[in-house]
Q: What sequence folds into this?
């Protein structure tokens, strides 16, 4: 390998690490998490529909529902991503109204649990 | 001659939730909801030297299914056990029947929905039919049982109504109006039934949601429901039975323990006003208890 190509490889590797670390919702172990606010949730029995429809999405590892905030955090399996369109459709099929959707930065992710 | 009684000839209520009426809260697409409710309906009085004692026990099974976010289908099948004892001049006569009753099928569709954070307002009409799956020709030593004591009505009947629901994290209010048009079978026809029902479910526990985050495992609700029921006179051989039908108003205090997957609930329906025609037998009380779960 020439001196120039060696440096190109090193710079590319550094850039890759920086990009991976800065990519929103991407933890160091490659796990994505997303938060979607849901309107209409008013009691624990309502949670089941949300659990069911979001749980049917491929790649979902866990779902946490904050009833008071009206927010749902979806944690994906490592390497899997969730699109806003799919998340919104699942909430609507559960019978509720999806609001804003955003990735959860790694620092704000709680340990994944089932 | 058996005195005709005011006896509900059908699964007394269409119960998806709260306890004695429907709700417009959603059933998710592909979600099933199962509910079992046990009902003990007691009536007793003495009229003209005749002591009358009526007991009705119902085990009512309901299955609901979410076709999509707005349309849900429900089926209700009761097991009914009815008995009527009369004592006149020291002589007791008892008549009873127990079997599967009539199947009720109905569809509920949400026509209006407005959601906010932690609350929702919904309006859902419903229509259905009651199918004569129950036996309607039971007999005993005295011959064929009167229509009001049969497990089934023998007739196909139509029903329709509308329910309005406003639900928040602190309480839920449901209000429903419904009408059931009964038809004739075996020379007997139950009077049509008009109902106005309302329910308030108020969260008793946790007392405050301040500071609570994440999943909340359960709520305990205090429940107060109101049921106004007007029944037209029954008809026997085309002639109105003057000792049937009338208007009643019940209040139903109860409790619910609600989790994400299941609910346990119960209460006692007590009559406030009973304006019954002729010698119609007034209800003493109705106890309801049951559970439901989703899957």
A:
């Amino acid at each position: 390998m020439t001196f120039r190509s060696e440096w190109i490889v090193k710079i590319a590797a550094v850039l890759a690490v920086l990009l991976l670390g800065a990519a929103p919702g991407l933890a160091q172990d490659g796990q994505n998490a997303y938060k979607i606010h849901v309107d209409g949730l008013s009691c624990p029995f309502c949670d089941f529909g949300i659990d069911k429809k979001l749980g049917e999405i491929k790649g979902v590892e866990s779902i946490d529902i904050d009833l008071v905030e009206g927010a749902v955090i979806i944690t994906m399996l490592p390497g899997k991503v969730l699109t806003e369109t799919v998340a919104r459709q699942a909430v609507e099929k559960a019978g509720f109204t999806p609001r804003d959707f955003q990735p959860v930065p790694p620092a704000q992710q709680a340990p994944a649990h089932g | 001659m058996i005195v005709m009684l005011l006896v509900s000839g059908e699964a007394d209520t269409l119960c998806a939730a709260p306890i004695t009426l429907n709700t417009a809260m959603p059933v998710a697409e592909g979600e099933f909801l199962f509910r079992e409710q046990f009902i003990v309906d007691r009536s007793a009085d003495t009229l003209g030297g005749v002591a009358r004692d009526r007991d009705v026990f119902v085990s009512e099974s309901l299955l609901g299914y979410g076709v999509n976010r707005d349309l849900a289908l429900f089926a209700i099948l009761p097991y009914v056990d009815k008995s009527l004892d009369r004592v006149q001049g020291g002589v007791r006569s008892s008549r009873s029947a127990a079997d599967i009753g009539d199947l009720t099928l109905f569809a509920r569709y949400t026509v209006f929905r407005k959601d906010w954070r932690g609350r929702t307002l919904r309006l859902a009409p419903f229509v259905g039919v009651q199918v004569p799956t129950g036996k309607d020709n039971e007999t005993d030593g005295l011959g064929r049982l009167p229509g009001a004591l049969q497990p089934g009505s023998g007739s196909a009947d139509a029903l329709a109504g509308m329910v309005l629901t406003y639900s928040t994290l602190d309480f839920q209010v449901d209000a429903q109006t419904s009408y059931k048009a009964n038809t004739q079978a075996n020379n007997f026809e139950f009077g049509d039934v008009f109902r106005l029902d309302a329910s308030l479910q108020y969260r008793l526990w946790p007392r405050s949601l301040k500071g609570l985050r994440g999943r909340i495992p359960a709520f305990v609700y205090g429940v107060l429901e109101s049921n106004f029921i007007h029944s037209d006179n029954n008809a026997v051989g085309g002639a109105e039975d003057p000792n049937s039908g009338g208007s009643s108003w019940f209040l139903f205090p109860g409790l619910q323990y609600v989790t994400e997957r299941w609910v346990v609930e119960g209460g006692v329906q007590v009559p406030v006003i009973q304006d019954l025609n002729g010698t119609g037998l007034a209800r003493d009380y109705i106890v309801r208890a049951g559970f439901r779960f989703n899957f």
Notes: Chain B has one domain: 32-294. Chain B touches chain A through 38 residues (CB under 8 Å).
